[in-house]
């Protein structure tokens, strides 16, 4: 009976209307009382409940789905198959993962008793043993070196009985001198595996929801047609509002939990700034929550914004945009439960949000997003997904290959691109320009950073501190800044961070008003929100022209 009800619910998942809502509600109530016989069936029910919370067709269906999700961890069938469902992100199940430094520290701060080292990872034990002495007192360090204790044994000898091995190790790393970058690098050298045990309030896909998002009941299936990107970008979102710090913190935690429960990591989430959080209401229950990064993690020129795609408050995907002027490098992902439906539509609406919130007109996708070094992207046909929406390569050889492959598809609709060809296509970026006559070059930030580094070496060799001081002073002279009095610490750091790059350009030929505007732009870089910085960059054509000229000169 339970398996029959589950199959029936799957069949009517994409049916909407009063009759469909009644059917779904009756099936949900049957399944709430049923005990499913396999882990796969428990997983299927869970995904259906998440889907119906994101796409409810009535208040009764939504309430029933929410109630079943709230009690999912206590289901007898979930408990019976807990081990098999490990790493699924379902409430009540553990997660085994090599959490990145920012993720691990966040988990240790909020749920220290639930986080432990995975002692099945024997490769990490000698790295832990080598990492411990610099984190401890001199007496402890000498003891570990003399006794040559294995890493896990050393932790057990040193930590208190009410502190997990992971919490002890991560807290000692957090107490290290230096800054967040040095502590992150140290943590990465340890590269430990963790087990995150479930608890009443630990992150899970089951409970993932943002209460501040709009809720709309559906009367028809999600749009599956291929959108016209230009038409979609001409249509503005319903509203854009800055979130309160409290709501921003809720979104940041939701985003970090989305990564933890999917064995993923996004730097924009790990180092997100709740003060720079924006909710874009796109209508019909679709919203995007954008969040910038904390000032110490901001790039000297680019602006990073991570984001969640929300349907009725449920995260159905996650995104990141790396913005330089009117150009944005994109990372887009739809969560497995919600694939095969409106991915193309939500992607188009995300671009529309970027267009209207940040003024973006040129979009790019790097090779990883298309499948290079990314089996998931390759197997999902990511290159064709974006190509069919109008993205094109600019590299001549790749453009010829793409045209040849598209011609084969036109001649034979059943033609399937070979994996080897997809790999060749994924070697180069794809681009979409809202203004095709004025494509924005891809700014090679990596090459720009190396060029700035070479200039610093010319100034002072390996003495980076003196070289940056000189670049900072030179930028101040060009901009008529006798001092940085009145600048906040973050604004001062923004000035030092960008000075090695801006002094590559001939600022002496700029007009006085252009240099004054540059000062305001740099201060905005260290301000509360990078959205102000992006706006000031767009209003500074001289800086944009200088950067784009440099990009064209260094184009691949």
Number of strands: 11
Task: Give the overall silhouette.
Answer: globular
Q: Which segments are poorly predicted (pLDDT under 50) over 5 or more consecutive residues?
A: none
Q: What radius of gyration results from the CA coordinates?
A: 26 Å
Task: From the structure above, extract its key features.
single chain, alpha+beta, eight-stranded mixed sheet, globular, 556 residues, three-stranded antiparallel sheet
Description:
The chain is an alpha+beta fold. The protein is 50% helix and 12% strand. The strands form 2 sheets. The protein has an 8-stranded mixed β-sheet. A 3-stranded antiparallel β-sheet has the order 1-3-2. It starts with a helix and ends with a helix.
What does this entry show, briefly?
The chain has 556 residues and is of the alpha+beta class.
Q: Topology, please?
A:
Elements: H1 2-11, H2 18-33, H3 39-54, H4 59-70, H5 76-80, E1 95-97, H6 101-110, E2 115-117, H7 124-131, H8 138-147, H9 151-158, H10 165-174, H11 180-190, E3 194-196, H12 229-234, E4 239-242, H13 245-260, H14 267-270, E5 272-283, E6 286-293, E7 303-311, E8 314-324, E9 327-334, H15 343-358, E10 362-365, H16 367-370, H17 375-379, H18 382-387, H19 396-411, H20 419-425, E11 430-433, H21 445-460, H22 464-478, H23 489-502, H24 512-525, H25 530-538, H26 541-553
Parallel strand pairs: 9-10
Antiparallel strand pairs: 1-3, 2-3, 4-5, 5-6, 6-7, 7-8, 8-9, 10-11
Helix pairs in contact: 1-2, 1-3, 2-4, 3-4, 6-10, 21-22, 22-23, 23-24, 24-25
């Amino acid at each position: 009976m339970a398996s029959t009800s589950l199959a029936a619910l799957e069949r009517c998942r994409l049916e909407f209307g009063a009759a469909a809502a009644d059917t779904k509600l009756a099936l949900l109530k049957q399944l709430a009382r049923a005990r499913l016989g396999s882990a796969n069936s428990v997983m299927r029910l869970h995904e259906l409940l998440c889907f119906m919370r994101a796409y409810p067709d009535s208040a009764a269906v939504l309430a029933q789905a929410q109630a079943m999700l709230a009690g999912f961890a206590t289901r007898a069938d979930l408990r019976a198959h807990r081990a098999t469902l490990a790493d699924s992100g379902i409430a009540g199940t553990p997660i085994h993962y090599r959490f990145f430094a920012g993720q691990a520290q966040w988990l240790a701060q909020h749920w220290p008793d639930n986080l432990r080292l995975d002692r099945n990872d024997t490769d990490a034990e000698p790295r832990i043993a080598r990492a411990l002495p610099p984190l401890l007192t001199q007496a402890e360090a000498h003891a570990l070196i003399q006794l040559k204790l294995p890493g896990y044994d050393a932790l057990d000898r040193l930590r208190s009985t009410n502190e997990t091995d992971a919490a002890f190790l991560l807290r000692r790393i957090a107490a290290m001198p230096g800054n967040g970058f040095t502590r992150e690098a140290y943590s990465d050298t340890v590269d430990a595996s963790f087990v995150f045990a479930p608890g009443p309030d630990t992150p899970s896909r089951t409970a993932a929801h943002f209460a501040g998002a709009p809720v709309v009941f559906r009367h028809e299936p999600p749009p599956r047609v291929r959108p016209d990107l230009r038409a979609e970008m001409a249509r503005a979102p319903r509203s854009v509002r800055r979130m309160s710090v409290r709501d921003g913190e809720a979104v940041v935690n939701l985003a970090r939990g989305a990564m933890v429960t999917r064995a993923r990591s996004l730097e924009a989430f790990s180092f997100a700034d709740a003060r720079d959080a924006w909710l874009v209401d796109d209508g019909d229950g679709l919203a995007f929550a954008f969040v910038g990064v904390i000032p110490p993690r901001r790039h000297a020129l680019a602006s990073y914004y991570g984001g969640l795609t929300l349907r009725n408050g449920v995260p159905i995907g996650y995104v990141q945009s790396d913005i330089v002027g009117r150009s944005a490098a994109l990372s887009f992902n739809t969560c497995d439960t919600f694939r095969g439906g409106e991915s193309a539509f939500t992607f188009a609406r995300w671009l529309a949000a970027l267009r209207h919130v940040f003024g973006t007109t040129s979009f790019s996708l790097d090779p990883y997003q298309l499948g290079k070094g990314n089996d998931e992207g390759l197997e999902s046909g990511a290159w064709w997904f974006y190509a069919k929406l109008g993205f094109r390569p600019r590299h001549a050889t790749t453009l010829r290959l793409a045209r040849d492959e598209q011609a084969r598809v036109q001649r034979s609709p059943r033609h399937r691109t070979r994996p080897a060809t997809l790999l060749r296509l994924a070697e180069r970026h794809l681009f979409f320009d809202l203004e095709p006559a004025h494509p924005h070059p891809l700014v090679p930030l990596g090459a720009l950073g190396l060029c700035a580094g070479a200039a610093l070496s010319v100034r002072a060799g390996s003495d980076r501190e003196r070289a940056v001081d000189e670049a900072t002073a030179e930028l101040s002279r060009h901009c008529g800044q006798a001092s940085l009095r009145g600048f906040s610490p973050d604004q001062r750091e923004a000035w030092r961070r960008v000075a090695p790059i801006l002094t590559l350009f001939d600022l002496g030929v700029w007009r006085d008003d252009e240099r004054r505007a540059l000062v305001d732009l740099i201060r905005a870089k260290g301000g509360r929100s990078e959205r102000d910085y992006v706006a000031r960059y767009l209003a500074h054509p001289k800086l944009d022209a200088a950067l784009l000229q440099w990009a064209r000169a260094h184009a691949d």
